[in-house]
Amino acid sequence: MKMNPKLFYVLAGTSMVLAACGGEAAQPKDDERVIIYSNADDEAVAVLKKALDDKGYKDRYVIQSMGTSELGGKLMAEGTKIEADIITMASYFLESAQQKNTMFKDMKVEQVPVDDYGTYQMPMLGNAGAIFVNTKALEAADLPAPKSIKDLADPIYKGQISFPNIMDSSTAWLLIQGILNEYGEKEGKSIIADLKQNAGPHIESSGSGPIKKVKAGEVAIGFGLRNQAVQANTEGMPIEVVDPLEGNFTLTESISVVNKDEMNSLTEKIAQTMATEAREAMLAEYPVVLYQDETLPNTEKAANFKRWDTTLTVELLEQHQAIFNEAQ
Amino acid sequence: MIKSTPMMKILALPLLLFFTVFLIAPLCMVAFQSMRFGAHYTFQNYSELLQNSAFLQAFLNSLIVSSCAALITTIIAFLLAYTMHFTKVNKGLRFFIQTSVTLPMLLPTITYGFVLIYAFGNQGTLTQLLGSPPFSIYGFNGLLIGYILYTLPIAYVLMNNAMLYIDKQYLTVSYLMHDRPLRRFYHAVLRPMLTTIGAAFILTFILSFTDFGIPASVGGEYEVVAMSLYRAMLGAIVRFEQGAAIAIMMLIPAVIGILLLAYLQRYQVAFKNNKQVALIPSATRDIAFSVFSSVVAICIVAIFAVLLIVPFTMGYPYDLTFTLTHVKAVFMQSELLQDYRNSIIVASITALLGTLLALLAALLNTRTPLKTRRIFDWFSILTNTVPGMVLGLSYLFLFNDSTLKGTILIIVLCNIVHFFTTPYTMAKNALQKMDHTWEVTGQLMQDTWFATIRRVVLPNMKATIFQMLNYYFLNAMVTVSGVIFIVSTETMLVSTRIKELQHFAKYTDIFILSLFILVTNLLVKLVLDYLSTKGSRQNNENES
Description:
Chain A is of the alpha/beta class. Helix content of chain A is about 40%, strand content about 15%.
């Protein structure tokens, strides 16, 4: 038998060399670039980038997109040690991160927001919820288009609707707010129970789950972010938006600056630019009023805006989660 | 038996240290978190879970569906490996089966869910071929199929590797002694394979038990415990403490696994020889196994074929015009090159360091009398049980203040720990099946232990080493759950970019990037397969 020691040496040798490289390649700390973590959609990120580039910040920042759940986990676990200098995220989530880690810096905002978000966040965009239908699937199943969320509780839609789970996704909250606001807790619960029955396996953990199922023709009707449905329609898919009679509720996404020991001097300027300079284009893309003296542009927009009458907090979300779970 | 030498101890020390820092410490961190309730430390989180009937039902569901999946996977994997080693299969067919069975391993699990929906859903490719959906993909069925697709390649690789080291001459002997076929099969194949079969069952069970990508897509109303964990850790409201308690409870099956494996260990057989001998001819056997394996392989390919359809159509399922626009758009993105480079670096270093580590651990475990050797089995089971998400999050907590944070190195270390079990088991299987008198002979000939390992043992397990390299590389390329929390803007990978695309609901792009990873992995696999067969052929030639 021929002995072959080469393999072992090659293996051991290269791993050491590569390990060394790994260590080196691993510390590219570019102090010049401001790092922005965002859970916002592609379109919103594009708006932010354009505003920042127009103001001459090109190559001075980097936007890292991530899912709501990953960003949420990072905020809670890392606190001020997070890599990012600026965060854009659902406002209620920023609030709970602030409560747990006291991690954001106070900001001066000139415009006055419609809601009180605290001094450490600047509202960036409002996301509206809506029903959307796949017209071809609806036709194939010979079903009438729904007008309200309550309609979806009708047994004729069994197996044909999909909505996100409020335990996992904040998009689902827009649905539950609509139900509870319109029908109160008692009737609301029975509607939620019927909705659960009708959706069966199509209660999604991701907020974008329903649009995925509706796009794939898996179900005919979904509830989710209005924007994603509008976009699918623009892409030529047979997707139509239905603004529910219960109203289009909205979720605000805000900008916060992480309070770090060593702050990049550009951080606050960039955050301000994101909040102010990008706002007009953002409003056109996401037609939801966030600041006083804002008017809606004359673009495609939700028919029936409504707001929950108290501030959206984690405690409220917990209450609504409990109602959702109790509805059987 | 040989005596322990200083060399063995010197090798064991860094290994023990490594696992203490990167496995035990993070796990302690999780245990610590699970006891936290508000400002004080109690068992409150656990008692709340135990009183929660929905959670208990999910736990039970997980046990049931994972056991079913593990049982079916183990049987299929055994039959497939048997086809490869103990029957005559046409060379081209052999290549097709081998490649298609391991195909799912080359893809991120995050892709599986979409693939299942696009294949078996109402508008799915297979549904359209069959006319109506063959069954509801949501719930138990979907989970079962998903888990089998996910774990079959791993079980197959383990079995395939272990069968390499079975002495086929025993079959001939048994034949000559006029044993009945079943008896022959039992003594010459099944019994020597028992430990591996057990290991494969436990491994696939735990992989299914802890995966959350598949239930997130096709779980439907069939709640499983991995979803409870995901919900607690990453739901609309983050409850780390509750999640940590769930994670710790998910370790219970692992403890049972360790006991089972220890029991099965007594069936381990070492062979002095693993020469290839001519098989006893049997046309019926050859045809039956060829047909069975081909059917399995065709099913897998048919399910994943959707990957090749969706990205190249304008808007599946409503506009089926062929187009390259989606593909071009993806390749226009400037970050992709950087991500790809990072992925390749991470996967290569993981493969080299991980293989070295797993090999050393297996060597110390099987071929030394060290007192600490058993501990590597525990590490192996533990790494397998900890869901990637939990491992990643615990790294995030533990290394938050260290310089490791945001580096390529922490990703590599996380991968090495996360995927340690299979390469370690492969190496162990190979080493245990080798003649145990080699070291004694070496000692008598005044060779050091290390020299014997280097000059005799390692060259005899070349094929396994290449398979280990391959396993680590593929998994480092496809993993999402383990690394999603520890990648930074500078160390983004292709697989974590897929997770980002999922957030944007860009399924076409996800399929394209998955194909990208698939092609890379396929190339690496082919090269490593070539190198490993080339190596063994040379060995055979030298022997004759």
